[in-house]
Amino acid sequence: MPILTLVFYTGALAVAAASPGPGMTAVVARALGGGFRAGMTFIVGIVFGDLFYLTLAIFGLASLAQEFNLAFLVIRYVGAAYLLYLAYKLWTSRADPAEVAAKARSESAWRTVLGGFTLTLGNPKTIVFYMALLPSLMPIESITLTGYFELIGISIVTLMAVGVVYAAAAAGAREFFRSPKALRRLNRAASTMMAGAAAAVVAR
């Protein structure tokens, strides 16, 4: 694909990903509650969700998302419910730094990835973004298999780069709170953010 097209795509995706929304809010909450690794695991799920919608947009299957609106609505509420579950776990967790770290290490990675994936699928902004952006940059029907994989690669790198910044900043802030009292406040702040992300998903 033309280099200029890929540059414009990268810039637009980076701006959209960095804009505050349910996805990055949830990443920050995850990193605050479980550290950098937990935040990055959640980002992997978000990336899978974006790649799914990107593929739908490229292969002209976005109309199927409208046809199966009920299924996507169910996915949205499942994702929101999972975020509320995480918010509850954060709010009720004991304010012992060692215990919190142990829980973060023992938490199932696939469940965290699934949480990020369902959150993205439940966010209609994602499919709208790709359906609006791609036709403005290139004729959809002219995208080759090579071009498709170029977009996939750029999407992975861009989304992961933005997510790393958010997760690292949140995890770094967590390091400043080591006393049980401060950690309890941090966990409850993360819980509130996670619940807010769930509300944003439902509201959309």
Question: Can you offer a commentary on this structure?
Answer:
The structure is a single chain. This protein has 204 residues and is mainly alpha-helical. Helix content is 85%, strand content 0%. The protein contains ten helices and no strands. It has helices at 3-18, 22-34, 36-58, 62-67, 69-92, 97-106, 109-121, 124-137, 145-174, 180-203. The longest helix is centred in the last third of the chain and has 30 residues, at 145-174. Residues 96-100 have low confidence and may be disordered.
Termini, distance in Å?
34 Å
Strand content: under 5%
Structural classification = mainly alpha
Mean pLDDT: 75
- Sequence stretches where pLDDT stays below 50 over 5 or more residues: 96-100
- Name the overall outline: globular
Q: Can you write the helix and strand succession as a string?
A: HHHHHHHHHH
The total count of strands amounts to 0
Largest sheet: none
Tell me the Rg in angstroms: 18 Å
Number of helices: 10
Helical proportion, percent range: over 70%
